[in-house]
Amino acid sequence: MVREGFWTEVFQLNGSVTPYVFGRLIGFTAFGAIIYALFQAFDLTNGLATAHYEYIGVVLALLLVLRTNAGYDRWWEARKIWGGIVNQSRNLAQIGLVYGPSDSDWRNSYARWVAAFSATCHHSLRGEQKFNEIQKMCEIVGTAETHRLSQAEHMPMYAIRRVADLLKEAVESGKLDRFYFLQAESERARLIDHIGGCERILRTPLASAFSIKIRRFLFLYLMFLPVAIVDAAGMATPLIVFLVAYPLLALDQIGVELENPFSKQRLNHLPLNQISETICGNLMASIEELPPVIPHNASPLPRTTSHPQNAPATYSAEDYAAYPFPAPAES
Fold first, then answer.
1. CA angle, residues 281, 195, 129, in degrees to nearest 5
2. Do residues 70 and 261 lie in contact, with contact meaning Cβ atoms separated by under 8 Å?
3. How big, in percent rounded to 5, are the helix, strand and coil portions of the chain?
4. What's residue 205's pLDDT?
5. For the chain, what is the domain count?
6. Does the N-terminal peptide bond of residue 226 adopt cis geometry, omega within 30 degrees of 0?
7. Which residues constitute the domain of residue 265?
């Protein structure tokens, strides 16, 4: 996890909400300048104490923080769910590949359909259903099945049903013990629970009444801010409006951006493509059978530079890949 330096993030626009709120920010700042100009032109005073307005600002800031926290909770819950998808996909694949049939076609199909589940999940959550939108699925399950997926009512359920059919085939043929079948079914059910949790987040946005009231409150606060401070701030009124509006508008936009952690249009959306590609790579690498285990005391240690006279003889990389080992080379 790479973190940028302080000055880099201070001036960084990529991943920042500043471009999204810049227009609103300039509008409120310009309004503050107009209010100052009017008060100067007509020699007006408001006679208001700014302390009362500061109390209102504190209340507004707390409301915005609550909204931001609510959005972050959704983002973090979605990330935890996808962590579960990673774990359950690996567990489900390992059960079938280790304890299931040794037939290479079955193993290949099984691993590919388990991997296809996470890929269909990220397409489904982003509203990508058409064949040209899910065309990369051809690399996992083939073109014909990708066409079927594009026509399925619910792509993740189609993929996980294929996994169930393969497990059923293995257990009915006697090539998968029923105990391991039940363990695999438990992991498969958890995957279904995970996509249900993601869909709950996606289809249950934060209450619109809450958002409307906060934004209305924010608008009124920033509209009356220059009127409240113009006597005390004078010609600095537009600058103070800018400095107050920027964090408030940014917090409001951050809450919006965090509300949907799956959409690519949102800042800091979850990297679902990378996560599903990682799952696919892990599972495809698990298809091949492992070589027999080499006893721990049979593997010679590499020669060290600190004590060359006492170190055991070394072997080449090709020698380490084979067992039993050849006779040690002369040092």
1. 75
2. no
3. 70, 0, 30
4. 86
5. 1
6. no
7. 20-285
